[in-house]
Amino acid sequence: MMKILRFQFHGKRQWGILEEPDTICALEGNLYGEFKKGEKLCCLSEARLLAPAEPTIMVACGMNYRARLRDKGWEEPAEPIIFFKPATAVIGPLEGVVFPAIAKEMRYEGELCVVMKRQARNVAEKDAMDYVLGYTCGNELGAMDLMKKDKWMTRAKGFDGSGPLGPCLVTGIDPHNLSIRSWVNGELKQDGHTSLMIFSVPRLVSFVSGFMTLRPGDVIWTGTPPGVCNVKVGDVMDVEIEGIGLLKNTVVAQE
Residue 175: left if φ>0, alpha if ψ -120 to 50, beta else—which one? Predict the structure, then answer.
């Protein structure tokens, strides 16, 4: 397992490798190819963490936890239900999530996110993990009143800042054996496990790459367990996934 960080230090944005507990070392080589840990750069407390992915596009899977379907009284889908989030939705740890002025109702969803390593097109499920670089925490935000109004997700799920990612990108872990929990203002709202997903990571990579090309750095959101709720300006949201860490963001008003 390796924890990879994207961060800013002395005005320079770069990738690094976390040497536990609090040292950032240089990432030498190609993030999407061969790389190794280099010299010490700084302490974790000296750097500003950025979102650990630079996608051209993000693909999200909805209704991928059986318990959430049971809560809704919905049938299990035969295929993944997906939608897009643009690259402009991405923000990093501790950045403010701007409550869009066009919306009145916003909901958060804690999710495991998959970051791609290689260009993927028509990938077989058995080969899919070879195309994955690693995993991070995501907070998939949506303006639910816009979804009801539009009857679709483009505005509701694609607004700027609607996809916080972080705090790091982790390689070498089993994505199907991780606890996933989230809190709003310190109150536990979600307490799930990735083993309860309907569609596995290989299935999602294969399914998405079957109709579109995924590029290095692109992100697949794997869905959220039960317990989502609305948030308002001032609320603090925490998403924690076992082995990855905790992603924290606060809802702020649009200026």
Answer: alpha
CB-based contact 191:227 (threshold 8 Å):
yes
- pLDDT digits 0-9 by tens, 55-94: 999 999 999 998 878 777 788 999 999 999 999 999 999 9
- Looking at the structure, do residues 146 and 234 belong to the same domain, yes or no? yes
For residue 135, give its domain range. Answer: 51-253
Q: Which residues of the chain have pLDDT under 50?
A: none
Pair (101, 135) in one structural domain: yes
- Cα(201)–Cα(177) distance, rounded to whole angstroms? 12
User: Whole-angstrom Cα distance, residue 165 to residue 95?
Assistant: 10
- The rounded distance, in Å, linking the Cα atoms of 190 and 180 is 7
Distances in Å between the Cα of 205 and the Cα atoms of 65, 67, 101, 120, 140 are 17, 22, 34, 8, 18
The number of beta carbons lying within 10 Å of the beta carbon of residue 91 is 22
Domain count, the chain: 2
pTM over 0.85: yes
| CA–CA gap between residue 171 and residue 2 (Å, rounded) | 5
